[in-house]
Amino acid sequence: MNVYLNLLNAGIDLLLRAGALAILIYFSQYAQIKNWNLIAYWGLLFLLEDFLFWVEHYVDHSSRFFWAVHVTHHSSEEYNLSTGFRSSVFMPFYRFMYFIPLAIIGFDPIDIIFMYALTQTYGILVHTQAIKKLPRWVEYIFVTPSHHRVHHASNAPYLDKNMGMVLIIWDRIFDTFVGEMEEEPPHYGLTTPIDKPHHPVKIVLHEWQNIAQDLKKKVPFKTKLGYMFQPPGWSHDGSRKTSRQLRKEWKEKNGNA
User: Fold this and answer.
1) Of 168, 181, 182, 217, which is least packed with CB atoms within 10 Å of its CB?
2) Where are the domains of the chain?
3) Tell me, what DSSP letter sits at residue 199?
């Protein structure tokens, strides 16, 4: 299933790559900085692109519309290196939009795409249970396997945490960081398992199907928009719970541990 989802993503990405590059090239004509120090250029490109990935990842977890795309990456109840290749199938349709500011700043579109590929390779490698904790300074600065196990866990205190690709400092700055706890081993997968997790269509479209069911409810238009764009788990009648609500309940139960 991981290979299947990766091939779907790669196929769409290949079809759209020229268009995404063309859009970045278009915006690069408005580049604000044209003369760079080589070290500053690559260092700043890395920092800004890693930060923009964090922003994208945060949005993917904060709005059900984008979660419906991203959820495929989190749907596996197994966690190993192959999980890193379990792609969010439709992300190539909009991912490049987050990098438009980089082109406007003055970074070459080819370099933007290269840096994303480089950081994404690192992001794949942290999908492992074989490596436990790394030295403290590494754990403080970089996304490590321990940090990313937290991100993939469905345990309440771990939900929507550790969004970074390479650097964990964004999560520390914006209060989305949680360390892996010995007393809380990660349980992988979704809080609500998929009915047919190996169905080739269901695995990609199941959350869109759930959204469609919610949109059929006889509720005001504003409420329908909530089912589309509010955080995953949002409901107008409290019948379901968001990650924030689940984390709050866990903290109250465990004495703000």
Assistant:
1) 182
2) 1-257
3) -
